[in-house]
Design brief:
GO terms for molecular function: ATP binding; D-glucose binding; fructokinase activity; glucokinase activity. The protein is α/β, with parallel strands linked by helices. It folds into two domains: about 260 residues, Hexokinase, domain 1; about 160 residues, ATPase, nucleotide binding domain (Nucleotidyltransferase, domain 5, 2-Layer Sandwich). The chain is about 45% helix and about 15% strand. Strands 1-11-10-9-12-13 form a six-stranded mixed sheet. About 45% of the residues are buried.
Amino acid sequence: MGRAEVVSAAAVCATAVLVMRHLMKNSGKWGEVLRIVKEFDKQCGTPIQKLRQIGDAMEVEMHAGLASEGASKLKMLISFVDNLPTGDEKGLFYALDLGGTNFRALRVHLGGKEKGVVKIESEEVSIPPHLMTSSSNELFDFIATSLAKFISSEPEEFHPPPGRRRELGFTFSFPVSQTSIASGALLKWTKGFHIDDVVGEDVVKALTKSMEKVGLDMRVAALVNDTVGTLARARFGDQDVIAGVILGTGTNAAYVERAQAIPKWQGHLPKSGEMVINMEWGNFRSSYLPLTEYDHALDRASLNRGEQIFEKIISGMYLGDIVRRVLLKLAGEADFFGDTVPPKLRIPFILRTPDMSAMHHDTSSDLKVVGNKLRDILEIHNTSLKVRKIVVELCDIVATRGARLAAAGILGILKKIGRDTVKVGEKQRSAIALDGALFEHYTKFRTCLESTLKELLGDEASETICIRQSNDGSGIGAALLAASHSNYSGVEES
């Protein structure tokens, strides 16, 4: 063998050794990827027995929250809604939906049982940024002026008869301590608002004062939380609706409780014998909740650390970011996307839940949607099929946990009001109204929630439970509650 051949053979051997080392290194790294994913899957586990324990814990917290203020992580707020729509409501009612940087004015024409919701007209108005930090007078004057303008365009046949006022349902999606169906003090602003002079004040009074100032003769008949509105919206068309749940950016639930089962209620018992309770269930917490290192890290980085734990593992604002956090660990500890961690992967909330949903629902053979999302959002190029499959698996783990936990929460409500079992000789049907983009658009989340609830209830009881979508509770629901709390109930509409 000549010198050149010896050198060539040595080079081949050296290359082979490098390739082998590279393969062994990659094999070891891939093993680490699989280990991290398997561990995450295990920590997120929601076996049926654990879900039943969570349902039981939810029921216990509901009892505590109804007994006295501050006794539970669940606020169990008394909504003062003791009359839900019956379906008989007729006439023209209005709604004002203030929940962020925009508000909506709605005009809803109701036709009773025969015609239902006849017509909805609405207008959305952007709030100028400076008004979000100015004074309450300026903000509510702007809202009242916009509302008056919306009403001024009405044809004459919509004008109320002499001696009768227009009635409004006011959805105010900020923390409020309600003192009656049409009054409540603002506890604090969120979502970029900061107007000190209205904190602790009655927001209905502030709006009424501004309406009077612009000559708008309108009475606020109901101050409404959007979850209570969801319940009302569904109840108008289905008298078996007993709870409303929002699964969107955030999450919450409201349900119909027997007034006698509310120890902290101090007033006269309502004639209906019922009271809608706004649970604020996003703040539910239990040792049974399957929390991971990624959930704890997300909570530590949040503005409301230690609060809204249930919301942080089941709602749309957070699911995509939990997936991002696992991908970041895979990239940092197992070279999942190559030798360096993609910079965009370090940005909190860059991966949104709608993007996660699109990847989770990818049915193409090469998971093209997953590849495109990784490229367009995170600037991660040329991913292999096995990498994309892991991404889909992570989406599935996070969505499945969230959906199954939401089902356990609903089970807790059903247990509290005795609708989780079938009583001998009773024909009962219970409908749960759901609203929110997560439930509406994330198909795998929705189907998992529905199948889990059936699994928890068993065949017989699950046949008595119906889940129905209830869109726009914050708008139409508020108008319906104005109708059911109208000063003119029983007055026949012309």
